[in-house]
Amino acid sequence: MTSHLLKFSGVLALALILSGCVINQQQQPEQPQQPAPVEPVQPQQPQPVPSQPGPIETVPQPPKMQTINWQASVSPLVAQMLKADGVTAGSVLLVDNVKNSTNGSLQSAKATAALQSALANNSQFTLVTPQQLAVAKQTLGLSAEDSLVSRSKAIGLARYVGAQYVLYSNAQGDVKAPELQMQLMLVQTGEIIWSGSGDVQH
Predict the structure, then answer these.
(1) Which residue range(s) make up the domain with 99?
(2) pLDDT: which is higher, 190 or 49
(3) How would residue 16 be classed by pLDDT, with cut points 50, 70 and 90?
(4) Can you give the pTM of this predicted structure?
(5) Cβ contacts of residue 182 below 8 Å, gap of 6+?
(6) Which contiguous run of DSSP H or E holds residue 111?
(7) DSSP structure class, residue 106
(8) Do residues 187 and 58 lie in contact, with contact meaning Cβ atoms separated by under 8 Å?
(9) What function does the entry list (predicted)?
(10) How confident is the model at residue 58 (pLDDT cuts 50, 70, 90)?
(11) Is 74 left (phi over 0), alpha (psi -120 to 50) or beta?
């Protein structure tokens, strides 16, 4: 009996101690986790600019436009054309604007001017003047800069100004080394009576 009592009181004491530990742990409030202090970021001070001037930077040059010698480019072709068979001397010739079909920017107005100049004193054709051409384009509702693009448009304009022939010119290929093509067409039938081509001269 005594031994039972001792065992019971021992178990009871152990239970009380254990429950006391649990109660003690529950009563202690948990400490809230303190966030790590954030260090304020110092704004970067602008670096003082040195008062002495630094080395002068060289500005890169823009790429130079290819200078084309249009006069040298068109003259051999014009000489060939003037010897073409089947041309009636004294006929009226419309020189259409040179078209740019290259892969870049080309000064086709200068090419057209060189073509007009190369034909200025020829004995074979009478040229439609740039003024007549401008008036005709205006009347037909075309812009002064309009390259007629299609041969049929060029022929229509030539008929309007009373020309018997039209010279259709086109620069094509790589803009750095274009090829110039020319075709002399009979306005009445649209037949090409002469064609020639040559590399553009720089």
Answers:
(1) 83-199
(2) 190
(3) low
(4) 0.65
(5) 77, 81, 167, 168, 169, 170, 195, 196, 197
(6) helix 108-119
(7) -
(8) no
(9) Regulator of peptidoglycan synthesis that is essential for the function of penicillin-binding protein 1B (PBP1b).
(10) low
(11) alpha
> 142 phi and psi, to 5 degrees?
-100, 145
In a domain, 69, yes or no: no
41 part of a folded domain: no
Q: What mean pLDDT do residues 43-53 have?
A: 61
Q: How many domains does the chain have?
A: 1
Structure tokens at 119: 């034909």
Name, in order, each residue with C-beta under 8 angstroms of 87's C-beta and a sequence gap of 6 or more.
124, 125, 165, 184, 193, 194
Residue showing tokens 């630094």: 54
Q: What is the pLDDT of residue 34?
A: 63
Parallel, antiparallel or unpaired: strands 91-95 and 125-127? parallel
191 domain residue, yes or no: yes
Q: Which residue has the tokens 């006929």?
A: 91
Pull the structure tokens for residue 130.
């740039």
Tokens representing residue 182 in the block: 């020319």
CATH number at residue 141: 3.40.50.10610
Judge contact between 67 and 139, C-beta under 8 A: no
